[in-house]
Recover the amino acids of this structure.
C-alpha cells in the first residue's frame, strides 16, 4: 500500500484551545459520543478509554498556576465531567470470552493509571484485571506498574504483562524491584508475570492481538495493536507499509493525534492522523493521545464536517468513553 503523503484535502480549521469554552462540558454520559449513541449489551465485548491524553495530561498544572489563567481548555478540564480532562493514553478491552466470563485486558498503565482506575474501573464496576499489554516503555505507558499491586495483593496468581524484550530491559532498570521481586526492600510489590512478545500475533485469555510496529520518533518504536476489527495506535510518528497491511479492513481505528497544526517529532498530529484515516477509510475513527490544544466539543463539531466532505466519521475520544465491539 502506498503512503498517502501530503493531503490534497483542505486542512481542518479547528477552533482550538483558547476561544469558545466558557464552562464545563456537558454532563458525562459515557455511553454516547457525538458519533451517536452506542448501546452496550450486558455480557458483550466492549472497549473503555481509561485515558486519552498526552504524557503531561490535561489539565496542565502550569496552565492553572499562571495568573491569570488564560487556557480555557485546561480551566474547563477542572470541572467535573469535563471531556477535556485527559489522562495518559490507556485502553481497557473487556473481552466476552466464549466461556461466559468477561476478561479485562488493559493496554498501558501510565503515570495516571491510579486516577483512571479510580474513575472508570469503579464507575463501570470492573472488579478484576486479567492482563496488561504494553505498547512501549515511556513513562506514560509504564508509570502505573506500581499501582497494579492493588490487583495482585489479594490474588493467588501474578498478573500477566505482555511486553517487548527491549521494554522489559528498560523495566529491569526503572522497575527493578518488580521485575526481580527478590530485590524489593520490604512490603508488597505488584506481582507481575512478564511475557515477552515480538511482532508475532499472540493470545491473551483467548483474545488474539496482532502487534502493529510503528516508529515513535527517530530512534524509538512502539506497538499498536489490532484485535478483531479494532486498530489501536496511541504512540506513532508514522505507519510503515508493512504495518499498514495489517490494518486493512479495520472497522474502528483509534489513532494518535497529539495536537493540530504544529508537527511533532514522535507523534502524529491531527492533519497526519486524518491523512492516515483517509488511507484506510475505517467505518469509524477516534483520536487519542491529545494535548490541551483541543477543546473537545468544538473540535468534534468541526471534525463532524468531515463526514460530508470526506466521508470520514472521526471524533476525539475522551476518558471514560465506552464502545461495544465485536471480538
Ligand atoms: Zn492548558
Ligand atoms: Zn511514548
Amino acid at each position: 500500500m502506498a503512503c498517502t503523503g501530503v493531503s490534497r484535502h483542505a486542512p481542518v480549521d479547528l477552533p482550538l484551545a483558547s476561544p469558545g469554552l466558557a464552562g464545563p462540558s456537558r454532563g458525562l454520559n459515557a455511553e454516547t459520543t457525538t458519533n451517536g449513541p452506542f448501546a452496550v449489551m450486558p455480557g458483550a465485548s466492549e472497549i473503555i478509554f481509561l485515558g486519552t491524553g498526552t504524557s503531561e495530561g490535561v489539565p496542565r498544572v502550569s496552565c492553572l498556576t499562571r495568573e491569570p489563567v488564560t487556557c480555557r481548555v485546561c480551566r474547563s478540564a477542572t470541572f467535573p465531567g469535563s471531556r477535556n480532562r485527559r489522562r495518559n493514553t490507556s485502553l481497557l478491552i473487556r473481552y466476552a470470552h466464549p466461556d461466559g466470563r468477561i476478561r479485562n485486558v488493559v493496554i498501558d498503565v501510565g503515570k495516571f493509571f491510579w486516577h483512571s482506575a479510580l474513575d472508570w474501573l469503579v464507575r463501570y464496576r470492573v472488579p478484576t484485571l486479567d492482563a496488561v499489554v504494553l505498547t512501549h516503555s515511556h513513562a506514560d505507558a509504564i508509570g502505573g506498574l506500581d499501582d497494579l499491586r492493588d490487583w495482585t495483593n489479594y490474588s493467588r496468581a501474578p498478573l500477566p504483562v505482555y511486553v517487548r524484550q527491549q521494554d522489559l530491559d528498560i523495566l529491569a532498570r526503572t522497575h527493578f524491584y518488580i521485575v526481580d521481586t527478590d530485590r524489593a526492600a520490604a512490603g508488597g510489590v505488584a506481582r507481575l508475570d512478564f511475557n515477552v512478545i515480538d511482532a508475532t500475533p499472540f493470545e491473551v485469555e483467548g483474545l488474539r492481538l496482532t502487534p502493529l510496529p510503528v516508529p515513535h520518533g527517530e530512534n524509538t518504536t512502539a506497538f499498536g495493536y489490532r484485535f478483531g476489527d479494532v486498530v489501536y495506535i496511541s504512540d506513532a510518528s508514522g505507519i510503515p507499509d508493512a504495518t499498514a497491511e495489517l490494518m486493512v479492513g479495520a472497522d474502528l481505528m483509534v489513532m494518535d493525534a497529539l495536537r493540530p497544526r504544529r508537527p511533532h517529532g514522535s507523534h502524529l498530529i491531527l492533519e497526519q492522523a486524518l491523512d492516515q484515516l483517509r488511507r484506510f477509510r475505517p467505518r469509524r475513527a477516534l483520536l487519542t493521545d491529545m494535548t490541551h490544544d483541543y477543546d473537545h466539543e468544538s473540535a468534534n463539531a468541526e471534525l463532524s464536517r468531515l463526514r460530508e466532505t470526506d466521508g470520514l466519521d472521526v471524533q476525539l475520544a475522551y476518558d471514560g468513553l465506552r464502545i461495544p465491539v465485536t471480538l
Q: What stands out?
A: Residues 59-60, 63, 71, 73-74, 292 surround zinc ion (ligand 1) (CB under 6 Å). The chain has eleven helices and 16 strands. The longest strand covers residues 207-215. The two ends are 26 Å apart (CA to CA).
